Amino acid sequence: MIRINTLRLPLSNLSSFSSQSQKSRPSYCTMMNYTKAASSQAFNNKKLLLRQLFEKESSTYTYLLADVAHPDKPALLIDPVDKTVDRDLSLVRELGLKLIYAINTHVHADHVTGTGLIKTKVPSVKSIISKAGKAKADLLVEAGDQIHFGDLFLEVRATPGHTPGCLTYVTGDGPDQPQPRMAFTGDALLIRGCGRTDFQIFSLPKETFIYPAHDYRGFTVSTVGEEMQYNPRLTKDEEMFKSIMENLNLPYPKMIDIAVPLNMVCGLQDLPVKPGDASSN
Ligand SMILES: N[C@@H](CCC(=O)N[C@@H](CSS)C(=O)NCC(=O)O)C(=O)O
Ligand SMILES: [Fe+2]
């Protein structure tokens, strides 16, 4: 069981999340929270800093989140790419944040994760990935876990389908957490598309923002409601969905033979072993 800043919650019914707290919350915006992606949406939270970063070769989004109301400004990165680690760490420094977690939504096939490289540059950072993915990381999480940074947290949802260990990280539900909620969906749900998806993300409130790991057409953010209505794959019945997914005709990912073995070990071939350190990376 993960205990470092992480609290296990038994969630037997993943569809039981309520949007109760949203109804009683005032609506206000702050420039502190301005991001390209969120600028056209209501974004009523004073604590969360969110930046959506892009790696163009693999069309991957990396997300930087921080609790900027907390004195330490603790931060985390979701799906960092090895090629853009220096850019991401510069931004963390410029914003005066303390990076504590480097997180993957799944074992990527199209790029090498930056989590291992980040740990060589900022050794206090802990890497996180799904227990079900069978990859190495400092902390292995599963559905119901919470990843805390300052007074904010991400809830872990299992969204297998694209890979067996795919996770979606959802901002916490509660009076002090950002509203509407945001779901960082990895490749399980893309905007108007999907990797190889399940349907658990759609049990979230319709106004929940969707932040995927990739976009191939220039979209940056969507909502659960929009995808339920307009996603051309997930609005079909099961037979049609299967037929669409079997006929995508996507090329074999260029990086897959390099990326997958490396991503099983945080993106590093030979991890530096520190004395007294058992196996973590
Ligand atoms: N051409 C790219 C790989 C593109 C690809 O296969 N994307 C994956 C997500 S990355 S594992 C996917 O599921 N795409 C769904 C879609 O509809 O595009 C490469 O060679 O790397
Ligand atoms: Fe993927």
Automatic annotation (TrEMBL):
Protein family:
Belongs to the metallo-beta-lactamase superfamily. Glyoxalase II family.
User: From which source organism is this entry?
Assistant: Salix dunnii
Q: Which cofactor does it need?
A: Fe(2+)
Q: Name one GO molecular function term.
A: sulfur dioxygenase activity
Q: Which SMART domains does UniProt cross-reference here? A: Lactamase_B
Subcellular location per UniProt equals: Mitochondrion
Reading the lineage from the top rank, the first entry is: Eukaryota
A Pfam family annotated for this chain is: Lactamase_B
**Recorded catalytic activity of this chain's protein:** S-sulfanylglutathione + O2 + H2O = sulfite + glutathione + 2 H(+)
Predominant location category = mitochondrion
Domain Metallo-beta-lactamase spans what residues?
Answer: 59-244
**What Gene Ontology cellular component terms go with this record?**
mitochondrion
- Single GO biological process annotation from the record: glutathione metabolic process
Please name the CDD domains in this protein's record: POD-like_MBL-fold
Q: What is this protein called?
A: persulfide dioxygenase
Q: What is its EC number?
A: 1.13.11.18
Please provide the record's keywords in A-Z order.
Acetylation, Dioxygenase, Iron, Metal-binding, Mitochondrion, Oxidoreductase, Transit peptide
